[in-house]
Design a protein that fits this description.
mainly alpha; Multidrug-efflux Transporter Regulator, Chain: A, Domain 2; three-stranded antiparallel β-sheet; elongated
Length: 106
């Protein structure tokens, strides 16, 4: 039976699936954004972990948020105060406003 929270992927496979370097994934863990299970000393990731890593990468690379901002927004999502789409909308809106202020466009 498929369980999205069941850890099955080691870090090398996870890195391939999300197209990131394992060091980046370890950095997300060190910053407290992800918490993979450890089995026999190895990180083991679930489909849910992979989805979260993809979301974090999207917010850093596409939207331009830093890890501290992402941590705060994900905490608000976990508390039920924001949805991921609201996070994206807020972050992208902020980026639009920032660009407008830099270019002087109203």
């Amino acid at each position: 039976m498929y369980e999205p929270t069941r850890p099955v992927y080691v870090i090398s496979i996870t890195a391939d699936l999300v197209d990131l370097h394992p060091r980046t994934i370890r950095g997300y863990e060190a910053f407290g954004l992800i918490s993979p299970l450890r089995r026999h000393g190895q990180r083991v990731f679930s489909e849910a972990d992979i989805t979260l890593i993809k979301r974090i990468n999207y917010l850093t690379q596409t939207v331009g948020l830093n890890l501290a901002g992402i941590k705060l927004l994900l905490a608000l999502e976990a508390a039920g105060r924001l949805t991921f789409q609201e996070i994206v909308d807020l972050a992208e809106g902020r980026q639009i406003e920032k660009r407008k202020s830099q270019t002087g466009v109203a």
